[in-house]
Amino acid sequence: MSIRGSRARDEQLRLVARVVAAFVSISFVAAFFRPSVLFSWHPACMATGYLLLMTEGLLRAAEFRPLEKLPRVHAIQRHGWVQGAALLLLIMGYAAIYLNKERLDKPHLTSYHSKFGLATTLLALGSAMGGLLSFRKLGLISFFPDHMHASIKAAHRAAGALTWVLSLVTIELGMLHPVAAKGVMPPIWQLSV
C-alpha cells in the first residue's frame, strides 16, 4: 500500500472513530441526562468526557506526531485543551456519583464499575499531569535531566492510551447496571464501545 493510501485509510478510520464516539456520547446524554437528577450527571459527564473528548484528544495526538515546530506546538495545545475539557467533565461526573451516594447514604466502591472508574479517573489525572510536564513550551520538563525527557513523554502517551482503554472497560461494566441495561440502546452501546 502506498503512503498516500495509508494516510487516506488512517483518515477514514479516524473519521469513523469520531462518528462512533459522537453517536455513543450523544445517545448516552439523551438517554440518561436529566438536569435536576444528580445521578444523571454521572453518565452524561463521563460519556462526554471519555468517549467524545478523550477520544478526540487521542486522535489529535496521533495527528500531530509527524508535525514539527510551530504547527506541532499549536496542535499539542489543542490536544491539551480538549483533554483539559475532558478532565473537567470527568471530575464533574465523579463528583456527581460521589455526592449522590452520600445523599442516599449508600456505600462507595462496591462494584467493579466503581473500582475501575476510580482507577481510570486517577490514571486520567496522572496522565494529564504527565502531559503538562512533558509539554516543552511550559518549561516544566526542563527540571528533569535531558536523558529522561523521552521517557517522560513515552510514559504520558502510554498512560493516556491506558486511560482510554480502561475507560471503555469501565463503561462496559457500567452498562451491566440495571439502570443502564434497559431498552434497545445498551446492546448498540456495547457493540460501539
TrEMBL record:
InterPro entries in the cross-refs: CYB561D1/2 (IPR045150), Cyt_b561/ferric_Rdtase_TM (IPR006593)
Subcellular location as annotated: Membrane
Cofactor: heme b
CC terms in the record's Gene Ontology section: membrane
Keywords: Electron transport, Heme, Iron, Membrane, Metal-binding, Transmembrane, Transmembrane helix, Transport
Entries under PROSITE patterns matching the protein: CYTOCHROME_B561 (PS50939)
Coiled coil regions in record: none
Regions crossing the membrane: 12-33, 39-59, 80-100, 112-133, 154-176
Membrane topology of the entry: Multi-pass membrane protein
Span of domain Cytochrome b561: 9-193
Pfam families: Cytochrom_B561
UniProt GO molecular function: metal ion binding; transmembrane monodehydroascorbate reductase activity
UniProt KW Protein biosynthesis keyword: no
Protein name: Cytochrome b561 domain-containing protein
